[in-house]
Amino acid sequence: MNRDIKALIILSGFEALPWGYISIVEPLYFSTVGLSPTEIGLLFTVMGLVGSILTIPFGILADNLGRRPLLILSGFFTFAAYLIYISTTSFVLFLIAGVIFGLTNAMFFPAWMAIFADKTTIENREKAFSYSSFANSVGTTIGSLIAALPDILEDMLNVSIIDGYRLLFFFGGVIYLSISLVFIWIKEERIKHAKKRIMPVKSRRVITKFVVTGALIGFGAGFIIPLFSLWFYLKFHVGGSFLGPLYASASVVMALAYLIAPKLAEIIGIINTIVYTQALATLLLVLIPLTSNIYIVAVLYVSRNFLMNMSNPIQTAFMMTIVDPDERGSASSITSAAWSIPNSISPTFGGYIMQNLSLSLPFYLCGFHYTISIILFYVFFRKYKNIRKEKYKKRKS
User: Fold this and answer.
1) Are 179 and 77 in contact (CB under 8 A)?
2) Is residue 251 within 8 Å of residue 243, measured between CB atoms?
3) Given phi > 0 = left and psi -120 to 50 = alpha, else beta, which region is 240?
4) Cα 327 from Cα 201, distance rounded (Å)
5) Which terminus of the chain has fewer CB atoms gathered within 10 Å of its CB, N or C?
6) What is the pLDDT of residues 256-305, one digit of tens each?
């Protein structure tokens, strides 16, 4: 692997560090400043919808104008959004920050996936994506432990919990801004297009299949996954001091999973790896609301994370292999939008259900959509079981 691939893998870890604690403290912060679960769900919906709507045009821009400009610009907008977080308790201003976060996500992730895929080859792509995910998990682990900092500052230095949360948001913005500046030194080899296209044509049928399965996963996940820390808080009345180590444990186990995934894919195949791990994860997910023991729930949560996320780098590498290289940015953005648009809508329903109906129902709704998606994924892609060998032989010939 060349210098740029290694640099991108390292950046994956730094990019995940703020997310490790923000994913925990963000719902807690909103709840502490007085927002209801329904309002919190609505914030996630706005954030996700804006990112979903814009991710396709930004993915097309990444293919036609380059990846680096979008990656660099995203950091500045992210920093601005966190400045809003730390300067207000207004729901309206939080919504504006959510719009900005959606914009930055649309800029960053399609361009990131495309530039990373451009740097890899068929021989090292699965391992490269897995190593990137491993670094991501290491960063998330460290970040998850940092989530306990506001509680520690409150107990030891009498710093208010709200100020502790805001301190974390500020450092998150600084980290994202710093990462964006590093891309100035990352080389980008532009692909020469025979013809500029608004939407992908060569990979249209394959992308459509990923759209269907991704939309189901995204919609189901939105009922509970972004609200997990809020669910723990409402059900067991625990905060960052418990959730930080729990999320860190999940990230450590996930990091190991990412190293195991490429080997598992070699043994049982790419498609089987994706299908089997996601199916087992879905089973564990629907078992979580059936127990009132927080430690059993913690074990189920960590195990589910291990299995559900294990296949992510394999699935991403698989998609980047079977779509046309000229259309990787567009493919990444379209499939991302297919996941994130439904995923942005369902948190509002999930928050409402948790507030007014049941703390358990979101898990079952999530599990139902996961199951349908897994079945369809196998039906759509089972013919690609030997894709890596076929592509490798074609490349060698």
Assistant:
1) no
2) no
3) alpha
4) 8
5) C
6) 887 787 788 788 888 888 889 999 999 999 999 888 888 998 899 888 88
And the tokens for 251?
Answer: 């990230």
Closest CA to 232 of 63, 28, 60: 28
For the chain, counts of helices (H) and of strands (E): 16, 0
pTM: 0.67
* CB contact at 8 A, 97 and 81: yes
Tell me which residue has tokens 């290491």.
138
Positive or negative, the CA dihedral 216, 219, 225, 231 is negative
Q: Is 233 strand, coil or helix?
A: helix
For residue 43 the two structure tokens come to: 């914030």
Q: Which amino acid is it at 245?
A: P
Pair of tokens at residue 317: 């590498």
Query: Which of 42-51, 82-91, 142-151, 303-312 has the highest average model confidence (pLDDT)?
Result: 82-91
Which residue do the tokens 């629907």 mark?
286
Instruction: Name residue 11's amino acid.
Output: L
Amino acid at 291: T
What's the 3-state SS for the chain? CCHHHHHHHHHHHHHHHHHHHHHHHHHHHHHHCCCCHHHHHHHHHHHHHHHHHHHHHHHHHHHHCCCHHHHHHHHHHHHHHHHHHHHCCCHHHHHHHHHHHHHHHHHHHHHHHHHHHHHCCCCCHHHHHHHHHHHHHHHHHHHHHHCCHHHHHHHHHCCCHHHHHHHHHHHHHHHHHHHHHHHHHCCCCCCCCCCCCCCCCCCHHHHHHHHHHHHHHHHHHHCCHHHHHHHHHHHHCCCHHHHHHHHHHHHHHHHHHHHHHHHHHHHHCHHHHHHHHHHHHHHHHHHHHHCCCHHHHHHHHHHHHHHHHHCHHHHHHHHHHHCCHHHHHHHHHHHHHHHHHHHHHHHHHHHHHHHHCCCCHHHHHHHHHHHHHHHHHHHHHHHHCCHHHHHHHHHHC
pLDDT digits (tens, 9 = 90+) for 7-16: 888 888 888 8
